[in-house]
Design goal:
The structure holds two protein chains of two kinds. Chain A is of the alpha/beta class. Helix content of chain A is about 45%, strand content about 15%. The chains are: A alpha/beta, B mainly alpha. At the A-B interface, helix 5, helix 12, helix 19 and helix 20 of A face loops of B.
Chain lengths: ~475, ~290
């Protein structure tokens, strides 16, 4: 990250696309995050190297060589604007491969098309952008190629451990991570100071601060009822493991337990005292609330700092970033919201080249820098996360704070073990009809959580899963 | 000769029949077929007979959507058709000046695509940024919250009324134009007022056109889709995934990946609409028999 990445100018151009993405609840986080797409098509063997079956044999160097030097076309489905700059680098390196970049929709529509293409068995992309929480929902249908035999497993040490956990299961690898969303708080320093808010070491501090900010007329933050991404991140931070999946027929839905109840009753309390608002996020009213100071802070993720600059330009310089408060003093744990990878579809006719493209986009240092500097994706590549040129960039929007470093540190404390349901689309949509609905009505959150739990269990049973 | 004519007739209808069969009958039959199966993420496809229909009949999400649309029908249709009738009569009485321009103005909203109309109203209704909200709060009243869960049905009725008043008005107006003017002249000579003419002559003579608009409204309302799906982006929690039966079917198919149950819901909905439309028509024919 060079100096051009200074905050004053950047995100505006990138933001609108993301914003659309974000509208869809689940996508929220992920949207920003993007990384995954590449594709492949060109040359090679017809053997897709197994998407889970044990039969796959490692690809040899000569096979790889042949796939990369043959004339071929790879199709990539990605919705982030600017990815063409990354794919151009790949084309430069492998001149015989043409990369066809297509945007088939942001968030939900994107996944619907990927699913349809997977079901049809043809007409899909070779490489697709895939947010972490969606991977299991394509693993269950056997749509993703296991990248381990192609050389995917050798990449594990290049990424933070928790990120690698998100894209792999046992020895199988389903995506090459591109961006991440360790959570943190972006706050208005001026509003916090005038309310006398000090350190937010624990959630108790946060409650105290909430009352102080409320006395001045605004809200300390907003709890969105339309987007479970933020709440899932908060569950993650608290150490909850609401979902489990064994990669086969067994899922676990454990939304109601002591840990989640602690989080839920904490927010219930803030809502009951009118200390937080419950406006839907990524809507016009919400953007306005961020810009006008209605919300003095936003519990967000590593993709948030750049995103915010595009919508709250008039408040530049008065924002700061810090980590989430902790449940007990002295602890340092975090959760994640968003982030995505590039996955290779099993239907790809050229899996070797497709894998190489996915790998190149998210592990070639130049490509990753393009993503982090120009597309504003918070990188996952360990070498960039340790590079002072990236970490020590001062951000004028944040009063010169080195927010990249803040979030790189926060990434290190993310709990490594958090799994997703193989029917996450349903889970996220149903949130709006159950827990989300109760939040927006300021009702009994515990009841809403229970309803969500029951809906997910009964849907899972109907789909033939064994619920644990 | 006659035989030739027959052949020509078949040739002429052939393009229609081909499109009708391939684009309507075959897909319909296929979704009917699909609705008899259940596909699971684990275990694949199994024949389930009428199980999907049995589920639909007791699915609270679907039934609530139907009830919501019934409320919509009972409240919104009389208002919309009453306004349309009033405007049609006003234009027909030729007392309004610039009738041509007015007719066009009333009709323009129908020419605006429903998607655009909904986006526009979504903005007008918007909290904090919408003009309605800003005006109301500027004069010191509490914000109307037109997108709140309890009010959004009314807000949606307003959009649909705005969109379709002109359309219904044109149907009624066209029917009014075909009423023989001698009837009015005779009534006027007898000293009947304009109101009386409207009530006793005009409205009865266009009753079949009015019933037509009622049937259209029944069909249109139970198929509401654009409005809820677009308003969801500005009011995500006021509109559930099963807000209207049609929107529910869409979500089942494309979000839940449950094409089979979605097909069953769609068929059940089609059946409900058929029964209601038939009931409306039956009532009118019967009334006509009584009066004649």
């Amino acid at each position: 990250m060079s100096t051009e990445n200074l905050p004053s100018s950047p995100s505006r151009s990138a933001a609108p696309g993301r914003r659309d993405l974000l509208r869809w609840g689940a996508g929220g986080a992920a949207a920003l995050s993007l990384p995954a797409l590449l594709t492949a098509c060109g040359a090679g063997s017809d053997d897709p190297a197994g998407g889970g079956e044990a039969s796959a044999t490692p690809v040899s160097a000569s096979e790889r060589e042949a796939a990369l030097s043959a004339t071929s076309t790879l199709t990539v489905w990605d919705w982030v604007s600017g990815v063409e700059k990354q794919t151009a680098l790949f084309e430069q390196k492998y001149p015989n491969i043409t990369v066809n970049l297509e945007n088939v929709g942001n968030g939900a529509p994107h996944y619907a098309k990927v699913r349809t293409a997977a079901k049809a068995g043809s007409g899909g992309a070779d490489v697709v952008q895939m947010e972490y929480q969606f991977i299991n929902s394509f693993v269950v249908t056997g749509s993703l190629l296991d990248l381990a035999p192609l050389g995917g497993s050798e990449l594990s040490s290049m990424y933070p451990e928790w990120v690698w956990q998100q894209v792999s299961r046992d020895a199988r690898v389903y995506g090459i991570p591109g961006d991440q969303g360790p959570m943190g708080i972006l706050y208005r320093d001026d509003l916090f100071q005038s309310a006398g808010v000090g350190q937010l070491a624990t959630w108790n501090d946060f409650t105290t601060a909430a009352s102080a900010v409320r006395a001045g007329g605004g809200y300390i933050t907003n709890l969105p009822p339309n987007n479970p991404g933020e709440l899932m991140g908060l569950f993650w931070q608290a150490g909850a493991k609401p979902f489990t999946y064994d990669g086969g027929k067994t899922v676990g839905v454990d939304l109601v337990n002591d840990t989640t109840s602690q989080v839920i009753s904490y927010w219930q309390d803030l809502i009951d005292q009118d200390l937080v608002s419950v406006d839907p996020d990524f809507t016009d009213a919400w953007y306005q609330g961020l810009a006008s100071g209605k919300y003095a802070s936003w519990l967000t993720a590593a993709w948030g700092p750049t995103f915010l600059q595009g919508y709250a330009g008039s408040t530049a310089g008065s924002w700061r970033a810090t980590g989430l408060p902790q449940w007990s003093a002295g602890q340092e744990v975090n959760g994640n919201w968003g982030g995505s990878s590039f996955a290779v579809m099993k239907t790809s006719k050229n899996p070797i080249a497709a894998f190489e493209l996915a790998k190149f986009l998210n592990s070639d240092p130049t490509s990753v820098r393009v993503a982090s500097d120009e597309l504003f994706l918070y990188p996952t590549l360990q070498s960039v996360l340790e590079d002072p040129a990236f970490l020590d960039q001062p951000a004028a929007f944040y009063g010169g704070q080195t927010v990249n470093r803040t979030f790189a540190d926060l990434s290190k404390t993310v709990d490594t073990d958090f799994d997703w349901l193989p029917y996450i689309d349903y889970a996220y949509t149903n949130f709006n009809d159950t827990l989300g609905k109760v939040i927006s009505e300021k009702g009994e959150l515990a009841d809403g959580l229970q309803q969500w739990q029951e809906a997910l269990v009964s849907y899972g049973e109907k789909q033939g899963f064994t619920i644990r | 000769m006659r035989r030739k004519q027959h052949i020509a007739a078949y040739v002429f209808v052939l393009p229609f029949v081909v499109v009708f069969l391939s684009m309507l009958v075959v897909p319909l039959a296929y979704s009917g077929y699909l609705s008899l199966f259940q596909v699971r993420l684990v275990g694949g496809q199994v024949f389930s007979g009428l199980a999907n229909y049995a589920q639909a009949a007791t699915d609270p999400a679907f039934l609530q959507g139907l009830v919501r649309m019934a409320v919509f029908l009972l409240v919104q249709t009389p208002i919309m058709l009453g306004l349309a009738l009033f405007f049609a009569l006003a234009l027909d009485s030729s007392r309004a000046r610039g009738a041509g321009v007015l007719r066009l103005l009333f009709f323009v909203p129908y020419a605006v695509p429903a998607v655009v109309a909904t986006l526009m109203w979504g903005y007008l209704y918007g909290r904090d940024f919408g003009p309605i909200d800003q005006v109301v709060t500027a004069v010191g009243l509490p914000a109307p919250e037109l997108l709140a869960p309890g009010r959004i049905l009314g807000s949606m009725m307003n959009i649909v009324t705005w969109e379709f008043v002109g359309y219904n008005m044109i149907i009624m107006y066209a029917a009014l134009r075909s009423v023989p003017t001698e009837l009015y002249e005779a009534a006027e000579l007898d000293g009947a007022s304009q109101w009386r003419i409207a009530w006793n002559i005009k409205i009865p003579s266009i009753s079949s056109a009015i019933m037509l608009t009622v049937v259209f409204s029944v069909i249109g309302i139970f198929q509401l889709f654009n409005e809820p799906s677009l308003l969801k982006s500005v009011a995500p929690n006021a509109i559930s995934s099963s807000y209207t039966p049609n929107y529910y079917a869409y979500n089942l198919a494309f979000v839940n990946q449950d094409v089979n149950y979605a097909a069953a819901i769609a068929f059940t909905l089609g059946f409900v609409i058929m029964v209601l439309s038939y009931a409306v028509q039956l009532r009118t024919t019967r009334r006509r028999e009584v009066t004649s």
